[in-house]
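Pilot study result, target chain (297 residues):
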Amino acid sequence: MNKRVNLERRRQAIYGWLLLSPAAVMLSIFAFYPSAATFWSSLFSRGTRRRPSEFIALENYSDLFADPTFWVVLKNNLLYAAVTIPVSIVIALAMALWANSKIPARGFVRTAYFTPTVLPMIAAANLWLFFYTPGLGVLDQIGGLFGLPSINWLGQPQTALWAVIIVTIWKEAGFFMIFYLAALQTIPEDLKEASDIEGASRWTYTRRIVLPLLMPTTLFIMVNATINSVKLIDHLFILTKGGPSDASKLILYYIWEMAFAFFDAPHAAAMTILVLGVLCIVAAVQLFFIDRRTHYQ
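Predicted structure:
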């Protein structure tokens, strides 16, 4: 009897590892090994033809912490994330609630909301470049009707980052709306009927029933929005290139610039490891704290 039980357990273990092996291989090739190689590269100095690279331990990290540009870029990215994440989520939820209601031309409304998501980020940036161009852009043309002066939205340190933030929100909100819309359609109609019988208002129904049931979707969107706040830099190449005076430069753009413009791969690798470390901390917080409360465990 014990032999049969042990054989069955071993068979189930082998079956489980066979199911996990494709994902494990893919993660090892495209995630674990590149991360380990990047960390190893960050421990060496930048090599030249005359002077090969040398092992310098954590000196690249100390150089980053002593670099004032690094702190400017970090501040920019924190502000970028702090604005784009909650605003995109709130707008996406509002659009989903409206698109899910019984309104005329509901299909057209959904299509209009989702259209920015279909556009590549480069195309979206070029579109908004037409809005932001001083003197000729749509914003200045509208402002001129009211006697407002021309504003160089992308050429001023005070407005460049905010202009980039608006493009990101416009691009991301429609994408997040799709997830909310799908989640709203899974809520049983019985709950709405029961709330109507109890005399609950639409706001009470939304606050007490809809929003709690949407929390798992909100958490999923929040994680994706956090990742996007670090990885989305395509529009920077079109709009500002990180300027003026590093006012709109984000961390991933700085990593690209350090690696491919300044040819300083070790410092770029060190910044990459720091970003991965922060994302791991965020993932740990999500796993051990937010996820339990979201699913009411």
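One observation from the pilot: The first helix runs from residue 2 to 41. A full batch analysis is planned for the follow-on phase.
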